[in-house]
Amino acid sequence: MNPNASKATSIDLLSLKTPQMRAFHLTWMAFFVCFFAWFAVAPLMPVIKGEFGLTKDQIANINIAAVGITILVRLLIGPLSDKFGPRASYTGLLLVGSIPVFGIAFAQSYEAFLVFRLAIGAIGASFVITQYHTSVMFAPNVVGTANAAAAGWGNAGGGVTQSLMPLVMLAVISFGVDKAFGWRVSMLVPGAMMVIVGLLYWRYTQDCPQGNYAELRAAGITLETGGKGGGWTSFKGAMANYRVWMLFVTYGLCFGIELFVHNVAASYYVDTFKMDLQHAGLAAGSFGLLALFARALGGIASDKIARAKGLDGRTLLLFVLMLGEGIGLIWFSSVQVASIAILAMIVFGLFTHMACGATYALVPFIDRKSLGGVAGIIGAGGNVGAVAAGFLLKALADVQLTFFYLGVAVLFGAGCAIVVRFSADHKQREAELYDQAVASRAATAAAAATAAQPRTSEALAG
């Protein structure tokens, strides 16, 4: 099967007519609600801390738990997407993942809260399915943009939840209940959102442009990714590719930093700059809301540079963005004034989100036959980075110092992007597929223009 067969060569944002655009819109929406639910607890932690009397070590354990389990689930969900298809995988993750989101509202002890927070982390694997689904739906000339835009808009859920959840809790409290009851009722909102989107995903998406994997395999059609059955074969192929592990590191140092900031930002602004909960949530939310455009910008830039420089241009862009992220983090770590801290966070956040987008603009080109395994392993790298940052904070017990060391780590880790290289044959194959996608897009545009001419002539004659 031609890898470009039936893949979309353009992104028509206002259309839901094609399976490609339905998948695009529903996959970012699904990722959005998963991210919203994943970090819904974070801006409420100052209240929860008081209710349970949490110590610094216990809070650190909760932050680590929030991203720890995601490592394992991300490793599994990529090959599962190859095996069962992204439609079934995403629906299952949304419906099953809603259970601990609802459950945390009923936690009555630190231990119960920790277990539910650990389980909620599984929905962070949603990112891998989002990137997988857009990768199989879009052609090489726009896949970087599609991946980055879908992930970026989904990531914005982390910013929205920072700003919105304190307001939801205040709305509940306005009915005369106390804060302890208010935060619990608030957590029912993201759980309900996950159930609704899960049902929509099952109803309105399909696995790839040709249909669903089960039916295609039953018809004897060989798929682009995963071979005949996907699963373990996909995972083994990805594990053997050194490029996967280089991007595992880079993603740990961009998306891992993003996750870490989501978990600590609100509390950091409250503790360091003495902000109230609402203003701290808004400040922390500004970082997450950058994902609305910054991650997409990284993917767009990667697609643009690929026109002239190919795959080597994509890796060079990632290297430059990570340098900017590292320098910005070091600046942020030294700031003592709230307004400047917010500015510094936005600057390094811009580079961080763009680096995330540039990383996954590379993912579809690493190994097409092992796409699920590649997406899963690299995605897990993000959570490994977040867990490592959590342990670093626990060891240092100083958030600003932690940010400084993370900035230094990013500067060194940027070198992994440069190490990613491709053989001449690999680059030639991908260049040919890119050219085919561009030609297909031009042919489609020409056909549309030709079809419009008779109607225009008739209108003028009339």
Helical fraction: over 70%
Q: What's the CATH topology label?
A: Growth Hormone, Chain: A
User: Residue ranges: pLDDT <50 for 5 or more in a row?
Assistant: none
CATH architecture: Up-down Bundle
Structural class: mainly alpha
Measured between the Cα atoms of the first and last residue, the distance is: 47 Å
Q: How many independent structural domains? A: 1
Mean pLDDT: 89
Provide the β-strand percentage band. under 5%
Radius of gyration: 22 Å
Number of helices: 20
CATH superfamily: MFS general substrate transporter like domains
Query: What is the general shape?
Result: globular
* Total number of strands: 0
Topology pattern, helix = H, strand = E? HHHHHHHHHHHHHHHHHHHH
CATH class membership = Mainly Alpha
Largest sheet: none
Annotate the secondary structure layout.
Blueprint: H1 19-38, H2 45-52, H3 56-84, H4 86-103, H5 110-120, H6 126-137, H7 143-173, H8 179-186, H9 188-204, H10 213-218, H11 232-239, H12 242-252, H13 255-273, H14 277-289, H15 294-333, H16 338-362, H17 371-396, H18 399-413, H19 415-419, H20 424-461
Protein name: MFS transporter, NNP family, nitrate/nitrite transporter
Subcellular location: Membrane
Pfam family, one: MFS_1
